[in-house]
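R.M. (postdoc): so does anyone remember the format we settled on? I'll just put the structure tokens first.
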């Protein structure tokens, strides 16, 4: 399951876990502060923002060549470009600073951070174990000519499946990035699965925008999205050559976030170091 639907709102599961961890941390910190100390609620919120800023800054620095020519993309966080380690480093340093300046915060803030991190870590690890290695769905879809094509026929190479629609603004914005990726990453197959539209509509869209997509299939009932547990568009799924899920991305992709997601494929095909002779 990649998303959770709450009434009219669809939220990525990892975002929900993060917000839940923040709520748990706030409640635990408030409860500990009642027994002595200062309430850490405002400090937790500040640390949350610091963590996001540091995670974004770390990602931008790691992929700076892709942001250098388009600096406005640095503040466009819709691509989901965050690095965990830099965010955690920012939170730890911020917490140490807060505790040094306000001794009354140390115990409540420490327990709050511990409880929130424990929940988030265990829940994320459980979700990772659940989704990691999920097989490519046993499903056949139609191509533009009306022929049935089994998803399993794409095994043998790393596979990126983009679930999209022409009426979806972030889908449209990320299409040039994915089109270019088809030639930039020839060892990867990019498969575009359209949701609920006719081949004629998609053909008109591609002709109007000047896009050229090599592999396009049509899912008239949204069955693939249901099988993978995502009701959000766009959703991009990353499968290894054996058809096992190794990653996913909800929302718009940028060049940098796509590059980050494809790195496991690069490592998988990297040649082994030559054996040293005696």
């Amino acid at each position: 399951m990649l998303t959770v639907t709450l009434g009219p709102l669809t939220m990525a599961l990892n975002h929900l876990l993060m917000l839940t961890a923040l709520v748990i941390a706030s409640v635990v910190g408030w409860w500990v502060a009642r027994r002595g100390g200062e309430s850490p609620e405002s400090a937790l919120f500040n640390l949350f923002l610091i963590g996001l800023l540091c995670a974004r800054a770390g990602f931008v620095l790691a992929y700076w060549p892709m942001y250098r020519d388009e600096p406005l993309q640095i503040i466009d966080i819709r691509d989901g470009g965050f690095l965990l380690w830099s965010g955690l480093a920012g939170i730890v340093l911020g917490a140490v600073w807060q505790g040094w300046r306000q001794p009354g915060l140390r115990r409540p803030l420490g327990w709050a951070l511990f409880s929130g991190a424990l929940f988030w870590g265990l829940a994320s690890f459980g979700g990772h174990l659940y989704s990691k290695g999920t097989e490519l769905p046993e499903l056949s879809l139609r191509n533009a000519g009306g022929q049935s094509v089994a998803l399993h026929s794409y095994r043998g190479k790393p596979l990126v499946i983009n679930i999209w629609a022409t009426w979806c603004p972030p889908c449209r914005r990320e299409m040039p990035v994915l089109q270019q990726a088809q030639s930039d990453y020839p060892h990867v197959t990019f498969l575009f699965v359209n949701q609920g539209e006719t081949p004629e509509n998609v053909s008109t869209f591609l002709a109007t925008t000047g896009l050229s997509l090599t592999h396009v299939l049509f899912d008239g009932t949204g069955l693939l999205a249901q099988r993978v547990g995502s009701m959000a568009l766009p959703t991009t799924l990353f499968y290894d050559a054996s058809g096992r899920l190794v990653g996913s991305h909800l929302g718009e992709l940028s060049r940098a976030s796509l590059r980050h997601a494809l790195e496991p494929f690069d490592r998988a095909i990297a040649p082994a170091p030559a054996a040293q002779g005696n």
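R.M.: ...and that's the designed sequence above, right after the tokens. Also worth knowing: The longest strand covers residues 189-195. Confidence is low (pLDDT under 50) at residues 270-278.
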